[in-house]
Amino acid sequence: MMTVKLFSTSMVAAWLLLSLLITPVQAMAQTSANEMGIAAIEQIDLNSADAETLARSLSGVGLSKAQAIVRYREQYGPFASLEELTEVKGIGPAILERNRDRLVLR
Predict the structure, then answer these.
(1) How far is CA 18 from CA 4, 11, 32, 72, in A?
(2) Rounded distance between C-alpha atoms, residue 96 and residue 82, angstroms
């Protein structure tokens, strides 16, 4: 009987200790994930980024489309709105929406 009581007490103590150790680890993991999420969204200035940066950073935009964006900007001046990006040949509303969170105008 004493052995069962000792075993039960040991199990409860082990469970409490384990739960105390896991809680800070979980909190650290969540913080790291949040920091990574924030760092993952790189802001690209549509009015100053070069073609290589645009191609590397924007979804659905390869080097050819990125070069078209730069040519448009050189011909017509800085973009006044993000929606103006759809005036560039090969850039439609779907590409704009996929990348809207990454784009800024300065």
Answers:
(1) 21, 10, 22, 60
(2) 8
